[in-house]
Amino acid sequence: MSTAVSLVVGADGSSLKNGSSKGVSSQADRESFVARRKSFDAIIIGGNTARTEPYAITPVPLIVISRSQVNPLPTNSKAQLWNMPASQAVERAKKEFGPKIMIEGGVAIIQELLSANLIDTFYLTVTDVIGGEKLVDWPEILNSFATIDKREVDGTLFFEASN
């Protein structure tokens, strides 16, 4: 069973710029992100991510973790709203959809899953963007993993970390 996290940040650790991760992304990141997510059985995001990012269409079922009873993605027929901790959502998603779960939520979800030792692979992209919001100490997150592979494409750094 495999649970992976995908996160893009700017060079200064910004996870958002102008309220969206698109602001810290690059063309190389988008291409890698779109190709990678198709290989998973389901995607999990948080409610804030659902409200601020373009999730109207996803290649696999999408689970939105939120306390709200209002689905922020009513046009995505693959979206489901679950009110539960991320760790429980991962376990339920594996039972309902299959063993390969991609987490595309924010840092709070990532920290919860790291604390519960539920992340097998961490895909991190670092672009040259600076001056955004929601800073992430990505080197600290990488230190949670035993193996870290690094590559560069068109000035964008890609890390794949695992235990």
From TrEMBL:
A Pfam family recorded for this sequence: RibD_C
Gene Ontology biological process terms, A to Z: riboflavin biosynthetic process
InterPro entries (UniProt xref): DHFR-like_dom_sf, RibDG_C, Riboflavin_Biosynth_HTPR
Ranges where the Bacterial bifunctional deaminase-reductase C-terminal domain occurs: 11-133
Molecular functions (GO terms): 5-amino-6-(5-phosphoribosylamino)uracil reductase activity
Regions annotated as coiled coil: none
Protein name: Unannotated protein
